[in-house]
Recover the amino acids of this structure.
């Protein structure tokens, strides 16, 4: 096959694979109650949860360090007056 035919075939395959997502595959999904749509999804534990906790602790430490630095600057400013 020539390159133009391969390109056309590839584009058709991509468009078919990604195809019109507006129509639902089954009619049952449109019959779902509105209350179920408003519920928040359950939070599932992931492998990144320990790292997220570490980031939160680091932010807490940084805020403590910033507060101590501001206090130290204030004391130095008062001492130089």
């Amino acid at each position: 096959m020539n390159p133009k035919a391969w390109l056309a075939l590839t584009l058709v395959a991509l468009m078919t694979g990604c195809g019109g997502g507006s129509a639902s595959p089954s009619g049952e999904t449109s019959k779902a109650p509105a209350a179920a749509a408003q519920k928040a999804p359950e939070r599932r534990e992931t492998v990144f949860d320990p790292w997220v906790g570490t980031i939160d602790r680091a932010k807490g430490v940084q805020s403590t360090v910033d507060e101590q630095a501001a206090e130290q600057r204030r004391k130095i400013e008062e001492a130089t007056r």
Summary: The radius of gyration is 29 Å. The chain has three helices and no strands.
